[in-house]
Amino acid sequence: MTSDPGVSFAALLSALGTVTLWSAVLLRAPSALRSPNQRGLWLAAAAAAAAMTLHWPVLHARLPLFDAYLHHLDLARNLIGVVSAAAVLHFVTMATASGRLKKSLYVLTAGALTALVLLDATAPAHGLHLVVDRGTATPSVPYWLVLTGTHLLANGVCVAMCQRYGARADDPQLRAALWLFGLGTAVAGLYWAGQLVRLLTDAPWVTPLLAPAMGVHGLLRAAALLVPALCAVRRAGTDIATIWRLSPLWRELIDVVPEVALSRPRPRVLDVLWPLAPWRLVAYRKVIETRDAILILQGYADLDTADTARARAAAARVPA
Predict the structure, then answer these.
(1) What are the start-end ranges of the E strands in 109-245?
(2) Whole-angstrom distance, CA of residue 121 vs CA of residue 103
(3) What are phi and psi of 263, to 5 degrees?
């Protein structure tokens, strides 16, 4: 384990980003596979997670006996990264792109993949794919120019489209997801821009900044994928709180006016832990039944009692 705190932090961030992104991919898989509109985004995130996994330093450290295959791992990582970039472009242009533009995207993706494979195959014997210094890289400088150029183009278009449609979105969930995804893509773009700067200039200060970039990118893309799930958890928490807080009053009213209840009353613990319907419906039913019971009981209250109740409610700042 390295003693450099910066390197250790970058490795931890990379691992956290990879694990979080895989968790988001697996959690969103059922709904994404059922929805054609979500498959492109899900595929992009899955490909990015696979590429980040192959980039793990711990993976290389655990395979010292397979040094001959390490460059194949790097090639696979870069090819998967290009597929992820293409999937991102497909997702962000799906609603507006013409059939010709989509075909052009497929052709460009195939061309980039083919070029990377050929440049790797025709390069001298090499190990890991690295930008060593200005004008020095393995397997070759053209290989890295194709790779960084592909990513920068895809990331630039994605960031612009996410910002554009995120600003126009009326749905807060969609707006948050697009902005988070665009921000994660921008961080990935900075990583590839840094690699290009290292390849073309003498800029040793860039290297430490690149290490945590992909981990941050993974966390932001995972957050974008999990926006619907997080919103669902928030709604569920609100519904559970409504059920729990309203149940005592609801139970007292149901005991007095049992005819308003649609079903037999249950303990509120069971309504929370083992509901017979979604929590939102349970909460809605309790609100409606409470209101109906109050309306019925109003007929038995004289004006003085009603005025006293209103005054006490106003003093307690109970909303009308």
Answers:
(1) 130-133, 136-138
(2) 27
(3) -150, 170
> Under 8 Å CB-to-CB from 105, ≥6 apart: which residues?
86, 89, 90, 93, 97
Q: Are residues 239 and 219 part of one domain?
A: no
Give DSSP secondary structure letters for 27-96: HHHHHHHH-HHHHHHHHHHHHHHHHHHHT-HHHHHT-GGGHHHHHHHHHHHHHHHHHHHHHHHHHHHTTT
Three-state DSSP state, 133: strand
Q: Which residues are CB-contacts of 313 (< 8 A; sequence separation ≥ 6)?
A: 320
Q: How far apart are CA 42 and CA 53, in angstroms?
A: 16
Per-residue pLDDT tens digits for 128-174: 787 877 778 888 899 999 999 999 998 998 898 888 888 888 888 88
The CA radius of gyration of the chain, in Å to the nearest whole number, is 28
Report the alpha-carbon distance of residue 227 to residue 173 in Å, rounded: 6
Q: Tell me the CATH number at 158.
A: 1.20.1070
Residues 242 and 135 in one domain: no
The answer to the question of residue 207 being in a domain is yes
Instruction: Encode pLDDT of 209-223 as tens digits.
Output: 887 888 899 999 999
Exposure letters 262-271 (e unless 16+ CB within 10 A, then b): eeeeeebeeb
Q: Are 83 and 109 in contact (CB under 8 A)?
A: yes
Instruction: Compute the distance between CA of residue 217 and CA of residue 195 in angstroms, rounded to an integer.
Output: 15
